[in-house]
Design a protein that fits this description.
Blueprint lengths: L1 H12 L8 E4 L2 E5 L3 E6 L5 E7 L22 E5 L11 E12 L2 E4 L3 E6 L1
Antiparallel strand pairs: 1-2, 2-3, 3-5, 4-6, 6-7, 6-8
Amino acid sequence: MLSTVLCALLLAGCSVVGDDETSASGPLRAELVNEAVAVQNRGQDTVWTFMAGQHILARLDWRPSLDPDGLAPGSTRTVALEKIPMGDDEDRVVVFWWSARVNAGTREPGEVSSLSVEI
């Protein structure tokens, strides 16, 4: 019984990729639209994003920041696939997102979440 519950919790924590090439994670929704990834912020806070092909991630050196401008609540940002760092054999784009938090009076990136979009 315990193993069934643990398995269900593990599956619930995985990224969801729908058959319609749309993914959602918390306040963010991403989908493939005309050779681009469209990311919509459905939440109440501004979020920042970074996208890359799933297979190239281990070779990239990046960290969350609050530059450039974030994605305001209710806004959508579309990024052409050719502008997203990817390897030759990519079949999925990973979208990382985070919000700002205040630590000792200074704004800094908060916890990073992710979702993926089949391309």
